[in-house]
Amino acid sequence: MSSVRYEICEIDPGHYLKILKCHSDENVQIETVNKNLYIIIPGNPGIIDFYEHFAIDLNKKTNCPVIGISHTGHLYHDSIFSWKPKPVIGQIMDKIKFIEKHLGDEYKYENIILLGHSIGCYVIIELLELIGQEFNNKIKKSFLFFPTIERMSTTPNGKVLAFLSDFLSWLVYFLAFLLTFFPNKIRKQFIKFGLNNRHGSVNDDSILIDGIEDILLKMSQNYSCFKSCFYMGSNEMKIVTNLNKKVIEKNLDKLYFYYGLNDKWCPVDFYHEMKQYMSEIDRENANVYLDQLGLEHAFVIFKKQCEIISNLVQNNSA
Hints:
40% of the residues are buried. The protein starts with a strand and ends with a helix. With 318 residues, it is α/β, with parallel strands linked by helices. 45% of the residues lie in helices and 17% in strands. The radius of gyration is 19 Å and the shape is globular.
């Protein structure tokens, strides 16, 4: 049976990560050496609580421990209320610092497998270039799901976010700050309306993860959390531009790209261009795939879609 717990890590003074740890009893026994340790690097918002169902399902299927690392400041906690946001490069360096200094020895393992989602894929690519060689050697594979790794500001959703961050950021921050003063009952109604409007159909494919309303409610209570998410998103529009071909070519045997068919953060054209790029460097057989199942960019909030992705990870981790 999988168990989950959360820990707060003060990665440097006044800046915090929230860590998800998921394992079975067998994974933590003294004599157990796990084949893989899976590490989730989330999208934005990088609230690691969104990935709990995915982590549990992956642990059950692989019988390997799973760690999720939030983005710095993308969290809520009863005893931490205020902090300053960090840009993308700070988020990358904090992931490296955690892996190198705080990963700890709770789990014994042979290999590290990174699981990136959205901007988490960009973080992984940069991490592969900057992390120490000892840990780089331990990273066996990096899955990049719905990867926002280039030209973010030119994508349909990126254009909207770039406009908001360039011209209306003051209004976005003001509204988010104002929302924190609303009673929980009213904020719950906003959340239910948003979820029903966006994901209102009821079928097996659209069942949302347990507790999503509670996660969103707690996020809306903390202005520093929202500020960290929006600040990072605004910085992504400026930082995530050209594809880092140097790192991709150097680590291509470790990389597994999975693009969405109707992804407004990463258009299907990017998949075709990546396939063309692989052809140009004589790597047509590289792991670059296009989703054919209708998965959404935000797959982690849907139970069945989490389970489809965990199946894919299980079947391609060998």
